[in-house]
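Much of what follows relies on a compact textual record of a protein's fold. The record below shows the convention in full:
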Amino acid sequence: MIRVRGLETRIGGRVIHHGLDLDLTKGEILGVVGASGAGKSVLLRTIVGLMPVAAGTIEVFGEETGRLSDAARKRFAARWGVLFQDGALFSSLTVLENIEAPLREHLTLPAELMEGIATLKLSLVGLPAAVGRRYPSELSGGMRKRAGLARALALDPRLLLLDEPTSGLDPISAHEFDVLIKDLKESLNLTVFMVTHDLDSLATACDRVAVLVDKRLKIGTIPELLHDPDPWIQAYFSGPRGRAARVEQRTGGGG
């Protein structure tokens, strides 16, 4: 679904990624972790074309995104859904209008049908229809994230990219969101690229983990990464929180 080779990105002359490779397999949930400022969100934004590539190639659905025209890129973007931090909803629009925004941009549909689709997407993410009439400022943080997820699903994408989806949520809400992502992956046949800092999310939802260290990715299952000698990886997965997350996963507490 995603193939990255030799990626280099820069911000203000600073190299963020160098020689980065990535393969995201159809049907998996890949969690992307790393230290603060390592470039996790930059990687997501680069994949979807919001940040420039200094070197290397990015292929999505087998097509090199750097070779697409502007018109082709717009059509291409309709095939994935993106959830940014805190939902990134338009504050002046109701929740339903937010979910309808991708439909208005890419399709020509009757207003009644768009509203019906938006209401269905709300239901998919566990929100009641009444929420659709509210504005983002009237929602809790968890509800905003779910509404943003509903918008990301508006065009029935096969690829879902999530940027820190459980950031700022209490443990119960975060766990419920992780379970929701895993259930949606199964029911909608999704492939998921999830930037996170949450060890519980890795244990609950992810098939593999990509760790961003030294401007590159090291990818594997959690048991495989536990054998990696990198000091940051060892500190992350072998510390108290990492051990607790693995215990929860083994005992079935991760859902």
